[in-house]
Design goal:
single chain; about 90 residues; alpha+beta; 2 strands
């Protein structure tokens, strides 16, 4: 079982989203819908493995903001960015 499937991560992820009131900490969009939120390691796991489960090193992001931050950090991400409206819903849902 990988890190992101571990019981510790799954439980901590839920705590972070609740702490952040289910809003992206960058743009403020709601991330309550299934699959719309991603919990980000502020200092990447690769750089600081000891902070992997530190709640103070985690924040809730929407998918587009997470992709932008990963790109800024130099991570290659081939996932397409889905355009969303101001409520965080995919534009294609309108």
């Amino acid at each position: 079982m990988g890190f992101y499937q571990s019981k510790e991560w799954v439980e901590l992820r839920q705590l972070v989203k609740a702490r952040d009131k289910y809003k992206c900490q960058i743009c403020g969009v709601s991330v309550r819908d299934k699959g719309s939120s991603q919990v980000d390691h502020i200092i990447p796991r690769k750089s600081a493995p000891s902070l992997a489960l530190d709640i103070n090193n985690l924040r809730t992001l929407c998918r587009p903001c997470h992709i932008k931050f990963d790109a800024a950090r130099g991570f290659k991400d081939m996932r397409p960015i889905m355009p969303v409206d101001e409520d965080g819903y995919p534009d294609s849902w309108k």
